[in-house]
Amino acid sequence: METLSRFLVFMSLFSGLVSGFTLQNLPITSFEESYMQLFGDKNLFVHKDGKSVRLTLDERTGSGFVSNDLYLHGFFSASIKLPSDYSAGVVVAFYMSNGDTYEKNHDEIDFEFLGNIRGREWRIQTNIYGNGSTHLGREERCNLWFDPTEDYHQYSILWSDSHIIFYVDNVPIREVKRTSTMGGDFPSKPMSLYTTIWDGSKWATNGGKYGVNYKYAPYIARFSDLVLHGCAVDPIEQFPKCDEGAIEYIRAAQEISLSERAKMEVFRRKHMTYSYCYDRTRYKVSLPECVVNPAEAQRLRVYDPVTFGGIPRRHRSGKHRSKRSRTDGTVSI
Q1: Model pTM?
Q2: What is the dihedral of CA 24, 25, 31, 37, to 10 degrees?
């Protein structure tokens, strides 16, 4: 009977993962048991349910939180509602990093949400770094098919030893496959999950043309349905401890179904506005993992050039703060 019960649980989880990671099949963790405050003092608020969080950016500071554990592969997700109205220069980030552990050869997997002037839509930037490959940018930018300030929407990262897939509302929007030519540029070391809001005035909107206007502050980003479903790593032994069958789930889920792949292709054709693979200003020759599509390259030429902020601003601006220096700004509202 116990064997049958385990098999049924396995099949339930397996089915949920391969069909699009429906949240009802994944555990939603409370803030207290899974996260700690990163920075921001009282600009971080936890709701009474213990599972919804509010991050604020004002003239004093931004704010953020980080997972208690490091993870080596898994599925990481949050439902996010972004600040409304004028949001130029504001950056909301949902990402994985080990920059606190590996300062010179860190890995990173990014969702960055870039604010805009009134009447213009938020944009999403995705990126990866592996083994300190910060001299290379593998950014992509896209718009959304909805207004992310009106309601919560789910943003997810699947990370395995061979694939990274970014999802929006269970629709895959980007797939990064590990190739031999990428070498150590593919993220491969245990990482923590970070969530922050901060001032990216120097680069985030039109290359720094429009900065944060604190007349419209406070800027509030809201988070719920926080999912950490992966292989936690012992910080001393550096050995991943997975739930029974977790590795199999992750490997099965990295195979995008035909219907999901069709949705991804439609999304990218309609909403992608920049890809590093077509940036001839930065790269005279595409990076080796790029598969160049001439039609896509032609379409993306109509968009304005993209300016990036460079790596130092990530640390100076509060995106990374040592999670060992926690301050307790958690309140119930």
Answers
A1: 0.86
A2: -120
